[in-house]
Amino acid sequence: MTCSGNNLILDLYFPGRCEGAAVRAAFISAEGEIRIDEVAAPVPDRGGVVVDVLSCSVCATDAHHFAAGGRELPPSIFGHEWVGTVAETGADVEDLGIGQIVAVTVGSSCGTCPPCRRNLGDLCATTLRQARGRDEAAPPWGGFSDRIAVTASRVMPVPASMPAAARELLEPAAVAYRGVRRARLRMDDLVVVQGGGAIGQFAGQWARLAGAGRVLVVEPSAARRDLAADLGADESVPPEQAFERIAELSGGLGADLVIECTGIAPLVQTGAEMLRRGGRLSLLGYPLEPAAVSVRDWLAREIEVVASMGYGRADTAAAIRFAADGRLRADGMAGMRIGFGGLAATLAGMNDRTIDAPRVVFDPGLDGAPRERATGP
Ligand SMILES: [Zn+2]
Ligand SMILES: [Zn+2]
After folding, report:
1. Along the 377 residues of the chain, how does pLDDT read in single tens digits?
2. What is the CA(77)–ligand 1 centre distance, in A?
């Protein structure tokens, strides 16, 4: 940091304004390597905000692209699960104040893209581009940073009273909400959640909230199974016991709904085989490789498949509402916290599957705060 003397005092009152002020941002620099750059502190556009990053949970997508050298990943998506406090607002921003806690989201459906013109606003192409960091307004770096500048519509206020554990994981909570919403769960369904990472832990809770009769979480890690039970799953079993238990619970019929949250390609077919005839397979996990499935089996059992990716603005709003009043919980999910210095080892560990924590949370303050944070009024 280059702030000193009078500039240091200026920076206390107007963080990032002193000449040469810099913030840290992480970039994927090569296969399995990251670089922490000091970059000029961002300033907001007229319709934008600058957000001090409080935390950014680490997604499997971050880890996959870290291994691949990040060639296909827009830099704003390396760290896309952030929350923070508004540090600066543009001249045209009226509804967000300095110090307001906000979570990343996407804008409202645009109303003009081809899906919107067909009344398919939930599948808006514009918000999907935003979520994937492929829109013109995407920031030059993501949430593994001290500060990020975005259009004001890309954030949503979070009540200050929300527990930090839930606040930090609002993005995966919204992703899981969309998946369960699209899966059209019916009351009393026997729901199997395959995978006890953050998405699976949230999907199980959303299924309960949506009226599932029983929620069974299938997960090899004992710690994750215990967490699922603590967060309200009726049962959690290791994979080798799954089929037997599903048969017992369903009188030999099979599950009504399987929510695949592992993103492990061969487990797509495994999940399908847990279903009853006419059951529904919800795909939330994101395998990088093609998955071998038996279409013959799917036809014979007339299963339905519903895929879901990302989230819309209303999905974020739902996650905030349910987390704010405690109906959706995340305590115990962020089993590991890291600063800039821990990023590379964590991403490598996620790829090696040596990290058991359902979610790792990055906190830029853990390596020592580089500057004063904006505080609320
Ligand atoms: Zn993600
Ligand atoms: Zn649209």
Report:
1. 333 333 444 444 444 444 458 999 999 999 999 999 999 999 999 999 999 999 999 999 999 999 999 888 899 999 999 999 999 999 999 999 999 999 999 999 999 999 999 999 999 999 999 999 999 999 999 999 999 999 999 999 999 999 999 999 999 999 999 999 999 999 999 999 999 999 999 999 999 999 999 999 999 999 999 999 999 999 999 999 999 999 999 999 999 999 999 999 999 999 999 999 999 999 999 998 899 999 999 999 999 999 999 999 999 999 999 999 999 999 999 989 999 999 999 999 999 989 988 999 999 999 865 544 444 43
2. 8
Number of compact structural domains in the chain: 2
Separation CA 64–CA 240 (nearest Å):
27
Query: Are 60 and 195 within one domain?
Result: no
Please list all protein residues whose beta carbon sits less than 5 angstroms from ligand 1, which is an ion: 59, 61
Other CB atoms within 10 Å distance of the CB of residue 190: 24
Answer yes or no: are the C-beta atoms of 174 and 167 closer than 8 Å. Answer: no
Assess whether 222 and 126 both reside in one domain: no
Nearest bound ligand to the CA of residue 142: 1
Asked if 164 and 32 sit in the same domain, the reply is yes
9 CA distance to ligand 1 middle (Å): 38
User: What is the rounded radius of gyration, in angstroms, for the C-alpha atoms of the chain?
Assistant: 21
The separation between the first and the last C-alpha atoms of the chain, rounded to the nearest angstrom, is: 26
The CATH number assigned to the domain holding 79 equals 3.90.180.10
Q: Decide if 234 contacts 216 (C-beta within 8 A).
A: yes
Q: Checking DSSP bridges between strand 275-283 and strand 255-260, what pairing results, if any? A: parallel
Domain that holds residue 206: 176-307
Q: Same domain for 142 and 183?
A: no
Q: Ligand 2 centre from 78 Cα, in Å?
A: 24
Q: Ligand 1 centroid to 363 CA: how many Å?
A: 16
Tell me how far the alpha carbon of residue 60 lies from the centroid of ligand 1, in angstroms: 7
Please tell me the number of the ligand nearest to residue 115's CA. Answer: 2
Same domain, residue pair 341 and 297: no
